[in-house]
Design brief:
8 helices, binds pyridoxal-5'-phosphate, 8-stranded parallel β-sheet, single chain, TIM Barrel, alpha/beta, about 200 residues
Length: about 200
């Protein structure tokens, strides 16, 4: 489980880590920086789960252990270069826009094959799997098809690349149980742990 700490005061994040949380999810590079003024960098694993702009890529290797939200080739190239400069190999997932909403981040399924091949070939990144944020639904059960679709895309991608893609990052407070049933290896849970965000 990735405990999503976006918008939380740093003291709350520190308390969560004291209570045993090992994985923290952040939406923004700058907020992670603010949290790390209070929570030691090595007290937890830091996951970037929000959209990444290319001009912020330079900060990522120093702040994060895993990036879930790579969704285009240019960002991937920038991230790979920055990881190499930092002497690191950064685990990444590709975010997929499974439901095809125009307004959302994530690679469209029809460009996924090309993006998987590109990211897999970049020195400095270790391609680990896929992530999705499905469109909001009224009942958790209604998200099942999107989770199953991400798993199918992962299976197809792994077969094409002829290498395992072990991680599926999917499921949030409202629907993580359905996501686990469909094969999630990371669920990203915020409000169910910390209460509603202001
Ligand atoms: C905010 C957020 C979450 C957590 O959402 P909750 O509904 O509070 O559990 C998970 N993933 C992403 C990408 C988010 O932005």
């Amino acid at each position: 489980m990735v405990a999503v700490v976006k918008t939380l005061p740093p003291e709350v994040v520190a308390e969560a880590v004291r209570l045993g949380i090992k994985d923290l999810g952040e939406n923004r590079v700058q907020e992670a920086q603010a949290h790390q003024l209070v929570v030691a960098r090595d007290a937890a694993r830091w996951h970037l789960i929000g959209h990444l702009q290319r001009n912020k890529a330079g900060k990522v290797p120093g702040l994060f252990d895993v990036v879930h939200s790579v969704d285009d080739g240019e960002v991937a190239v920038a991230l790979a270069r920055r990881a190499r400069e930092a002497g690191r190999v950064l685990p990444v997932l590709i975010e997929v826009n499974v439901s095809g909403e125009a307004s959302k981040f994530g690679a469209q399924p029809d460009v996924l094959d090309a993006l998987l091949e590109q990211v897999a070939s970049l020195e400095g990144l270790e391609l680990r799997g896929l992530m999705t944020v499905p469109e909001a639904v009224d009942r958790p059960e209604d998200a099942r098809a999107a989770f199953a679709r991400l798993r199918e895309l992962r299976d197809a991608g792994a077969a094409r690349l002829a290498r395992p893609l072990p991680e599926l990052s999917m499921g949030m407070s409202e629907d993580f149980e359905v996501a686990v049933e469909e094969g999630a290896t990371w669920v990203r849970v915020g409000s169910a742990l910390f209460g509603a965000r202001a």
